[in-house]
User: Fold this.
Amino acid sequence: MRGGPEPGVAEWARLGELRERFLGGTAGGADYWIDRRTLELYDRFFAARIGWKWDAVLQELKSRRFRPGGGPLLDWGCGTGIASRCFMRAFPQAGGVVVLHDRSDEAMRFAEERLAGCAGGVPDGIRRARVLDPEAVAPETTVLLSHVLSELDDRLLDGIVDGLLRRAGAFVWVEPGTYAESRRLIAARGRLMDAFYVAGPCPHQETCGLCAEGRERHWCHSFARPPVEAFTDPVWAGFSKQLGIDLRALPYTYLAMCRDKPRPDTPPEKTGTPARLLGRVRETPGGLGVLSCEATGVHEREIRVREAKRLAKALKKGGGGPYFHWKLREGRIVGGGTDADP
Ligand SMILES: C[S@@+](CC[C@H](N)C(=O)[O-])C[C@H]1O[C@@H](n2cnc3c(N)ncnc32)[C@H](O)[C@@H]1O
Assistant:
């Protein structure tokens, strides 16, 4: 098993403590990568789950024809480097050097080792940068940020958004799908809209519909699907039991922006209203209720089974999406399909 032997009682406890720090918002205070085993444990479990979210996001971005800029890849707050590993797997021809940045030397070394060991490696090489000068960031750089928001105070966040990201060519930022993280990413989106296009999750380039009056209680989030091994590997069952984590729930929120115009929002052959589902589909007495992000805002829409049987059935099964093109009648969804449908 990658990541050393199966954890013992004390190691499960160490993972539990790490998790407390992340959930309690105290992880930003000091470096918690106390030794290599902590990095191994994190990588085996927490980073693996984060990787499943990255896989979902990158799959989505590929379907939106997002392409990295061809320049350096910068993994900010890289930890064990799961974001750059997933990215290099999804975009093996991305090109450019991979720059790993973290306040922890130990973490950067670990991330470099794991990244170098990936299939295909990194043809243009890997660099470690504990100190980063945002002004030196090349305009074709793609920046990756993953699960760092809860460790950033407002000053650091301002530096990342206005100093670093504003100089980059593109960025992909993945966070846990909580209300707080989603709202902070929405604010970052608003600040960068003058310089970037949105590649995802929004199916439009307008102001975020969740900023509108009446939408304050909602947030932008989705659910990734864990691979089968999460339910068949006894070590994952142990992880779930020891830490009280439901392996089925993998909520994430993300933001991807690029300087170059992405593809048209909906394939030209598609008709209907481009939309992306937010959160879970709800069952209602007559069918389904969805929160639909569209260019005109975020709408709570109804799908009546008798009006859109096939679509309702697919959505109930969790199939398709998250991008759709709706056929609307009197505000209800009466047909349509995913962008991937023939
Ligand atoms: C929760 S971990 C996430 C690691 C990795 N990005 C992932 O998704 O698994 C947060 C990382 O941010 C790093 N970090 C926190 N504050 C930082 C700062 N001010 N500068 C650089 N790295 C920082 C931590 O050392 C840690 O590796």
Observations:
- The longest strand covers residues 273-284.
